[in-house]
Amino acid sequence: MPALTEPHPLELYELCVQEPLTAAAMLRRLHGARPRTLAEDFAGSAALSRAWLIADPDARAIATDFDSAAVAYAAQRAANSGIEPARLRLVNADVRAISKPDPADVVFVGNFSIGELHERAELVEYFRSAHARLNPRGIFVCDTYGGAAAFRTGHVQRTHTGREPRERIHYTWQQRRVDPFTGRVENALHFRVENDGEVVAELFDAFVYDWRLWSVPELRDAMREAGFAETQVIAGTDADAPALRESEAAEHHIVCVLGR
Q1: Is the pTM of this model over 0.90?
Q2: pLDDT confidence of residue 243
Q3: Which homologous superfamily does the CATH classification assign to the domain defined by 9-146+215-259?
């Protein structure tokens, strides 16, 4: 068997962090009809957009990210997946600076990227722009995490199967700095890749994030100010997941916040 090439950081991110097929199915259920067009903001490798298109041959997607290297990698992955260029529009831009964005049935911000917006004024401005992009009956969804544990430093380690059965990816999520008075957190992701027990790649600080950790009430309040008539909280990233108990949510939660 030929040796695997050194993994791209975004490839490791997809394998260890994302579940795009689950997320795409969830967004379709939350919409409630048959949404065709997805706008994936802060898209990174556009993994969700690819999953969205694979699930429905009539669908299309717009994936936007300000990182040109991520957009180039997304284009490569889309081509390797056999996705027709006409179905996936890749945009290298700040999502807040697009003068004529395409309308969409679903606008999604995943991977806690809503925290890239540090000031409430820019959060409301972004929500207002997202609301204006939605087709009738369209929805906006973003994810976030919170609870008492969200403002503690520490790390979580997990091991995932890699690109082939003998490959293991040891993934670490580290929350290295927190400030509960400003809501700012600094998080880092690290990867160590082994094949048959031999380390073949080690990526320390593969991704480092400086986020404003918005609470669920703050997000819902900003959405309403931006024009959303209804907001809703969904436990986890599964529309069919049971509701969180208050005691569980108070300690730690990962949720999606929906506006329509």
Answers
A1: yes
A2: 54
A3: Vaccinia Virus protein VP39 (3.40.50.150)
